[in-house]
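Annex B. Sample input.
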Amino acid sequence: MDKRSPTLDEVILEEAAGWLIRIEEAPETLTSAPFEHWLYADPRHVNAFTRMANEWGAAAALVVETPTQKPYVRSQSHAGGLRRWAGKLRAPWLAGGLGALAAAAVALVFLYVPMSAPAGEAILYTTDIGEISRFDLADGSSLVLDTNSSARVSLTRTGREVSLERGRVFVDVKPDADRPFSVGEGEVSFTALGTSYAVERESDNWRLEVYEGTVRLKSLRESGVYGAGTGASFKPAGLTSFDLPQTLEPGQPNWTSGRVVFDATMLADAVQAFESYSDKHVTLIGGDLQTYEVSGVFRLTDMEAFLQSVVILTGARLSETGDEVELEAE
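Annex B, continued. Sample output.
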């Protein structure tokens, strides 16, 4: 399965390239209804358009003024795809020159700063398996989606709602007392006025981690307020509160930077964490491997490096057939 980020999907990059060429040939295209419709049809279109322009050396004309962004994780194969597209399309673009596009730069900046859908409409944000992506919202907040996650964001004058359909999200909320910010789905919600927190959903099971400020949990059966450094696991069977462990970077979970910390973690549990970021399935053969404890900091999107470390540490034999991987104890 291709794990490249939807934000730079080759089909969307091709569409973005087409719009860039049309704007160069006819600058009025920049404010046309068809272009605006394409822009707002999918949040990935903005990313593809600006990134493609930057690859072609048009950054000076296309810079969009947004708050400072933290880096997000993307695969090496994805970066290679971008270079391939730039290589294919760079020549005709540069042959036409950047004059018309540069002249339209002011209009482009004003068009892109909102980065939002028409009022009342929700925008769907998704990530593929192995992808961790950051998205900036029109209200000044931002969210980071973990691997294989999906969330719909609705921003109105009275509130801001993130409907988490699956997976995990970390939100950095811009304070606005008149527009509460909540993450949840159905009867479950986690609401804050200005804070940073992560919410994970697996079917009817929810997990809250608060990294800054306070968050109010509310459902038909449970409610509570949680402060920075605390969290809660909410399941149909009940609610469990806990304290958060120290993270590699203050104020955010480790997975947002694509890393995981194991501290005497059983190998079976560690492997399960990596499988969430890969199409590969790992089978551990031998009881000693199942209970072997691993410690250290690893890159979540690099299962191969982790397995090679295990081989070195345990002397296990590694074999692979397609997406099936076996680790067998000596």
